[in-house]
Amino acid sequence: MPPHRQPRRTTRPHPWSPMTDAEWAALAPLLAPPRATPRGRPPADRRRTLDAIFWVACSRGPWRDLPPELGRADTAHRTLRRFARSGLLDRLLAAAPRLASLEWRIARAWRRACRLMSMASLLLARNLGLTAALPCSEADLPNPDLSETLHRARESVLESGLPILRSGLKWLMLLHRMVGGRPQAFRTTA
């Protein structure tokens, strides 16, 4: 059974602004480390680092254009990569609909790091219906819902009236392309 998909949510782009105290209060509990003893040095100013990540995500510019008052670009970039690899960005994306004022910024930050994400993360964004987080159109993403796709493809072959043996190879090639999506589209879009 395919996972439940939520209706599409289109969030309006808006210019970057620093997080308010209320937004930080809503976001801070989600950033707590899952382990009791986190390794490494704690960040000096996590709020400023997140503002830097959101600035780059909203501006769509390179990391080197980050204003100096938001900290070092390599620190923010490294933090975003760590969030992506640890699964924290997925948790933030799942919570984004509850954080209405931060939804677009979280979706754009997630999209910025989507190349580091697993296929399950890409499908999470699709199933949540957050179109701002998707790195490409939904048609270009992989389609793991094989049973539904297979059933539709089978019905279209049967309705065409062509013998299945003659069109079987083309049908299998079409199914293979539909399942895999277009990796060049969702792995190279910024």
Q: How are the elements arranged and paired?
A:
Blueprint: H1 21-27, H2 46-59, H3 73-86, H4 88-95, H5 103-112, H6 119-128, H7 146-160, H8 164-180, H9 183-186
Descriptive overview:
By secondary structure, this protein is mainly α. It folds into two domains: 21-135, no CATH class; 146-186, no CATH class. 52% of the residues lie in helices and 0% in strands. It contains nine helices and no strands. Helix 4 packs antiparallel against helix 5. The longest helix is centred in the C-terminal third of the chain and has 17 residues, at 164-180.
- How many domains is the backbone divided into? 2
Rg, nearest Å: 20 Å
Shape: elongated
Distance between the termini: 32 Å
Average pLDDT reading: 77
Order of helices and strands: HHHHHHHHH
Number of strands: 0
Going by helix content, strand content and strand pairing, the class is mainly alpha
What fraction strand? under 5%
Total of helices:
9
- Poorly predicted ranges: none
Helix proportion: 40-55%
What profile does the largest beta sheet have? none
In short:
Helix 2 (46-59) crosses helix 3, helix 2 crosses helix 5 and helix 4 packs antiparallel against helix 5 (103-112).
Which tags fit this structure?
190 residues, mainly alpha, 2 domains, 9 helices, elongated, 52% helix
